[in-house]
Amino acid sequence: MRASLFSTNSDGACPECKGLGIISTDLAFMDAVEIECELCRGSGYKQDVVKYKLQGKSIIDIMSFTLSETRDFFAEHEIYSI
User: Fold this and answer.
1) What pLDDT score does 75 carry?
2) Over the stretch 20-31, which tens digit does the pLDDT of each residue have?
3) Is pLDDT of 78 > 80?
4) Where are the alpha helices (DSSP H) in the chain?
5) What is the spatial distance between Cα 32 and Cα 53, in angstroms, rounded to a whole number?
6) CA distances from 4 to 38, 54, 60, 68 (A)
7) Would you say 5 and 41 are in contact if contact means Cβ atoms under 8 Å apart?
8) Residue 82 has pLDDT above 70, yes or no
9) Over the range 1-31, which residues count as b (16 or more CB within 10 Å of their CB) and which as e?
10) What is the bridge-based pairing of β-strands 22-25 and 33-36?
11) What is each CA distance from 13 to 3, 7, 48, 63, in whole angstroms?
């Protein structure tokens, strides 16, 4: 499994909204109209990405964590940069 699968800017992006979570309709004579993407329900991720879980949480759940929730969730895992 590639890390890029968990990015809305790369392989994990919803094909409908291109990872934005919204569909924007630009009308030349009016302001643009934005609606939530029906395919990803606003998450920006492909549906086959959301099925992967870490300790019962999907990427959508993890990305919505507060800083303290993130610290607690990953407390038993060493996090490091490559």
Assistant:
1) 84
2) 999 999 888 888
3) no
4) 47-50, 59-63, 67-73
5) 36
6) 23, 16, 15, 25
7) no
8) no
9) eeeebbbbeeebbbeebebbbeeeeeeeeee
10) antiparallel
11) 12, 7, 10, 14
pLDDT at position 14: 94
Residue indicated by tokens 């964590």: 65
Q: Which residue has the tokens 């004579």?
A: 29
What's the chain's length in residues? Answer: 82
The mean per-residue pLDDT over the stretch 62-69 comes to: 92
Residue 5 neighbours by CB under 8 Å, 6+ apart: 11, 12, 49
Reading the block at residue 75, the tokens are: 């407390």
**Cα gap 60→12, rounded to integer Å:** 12
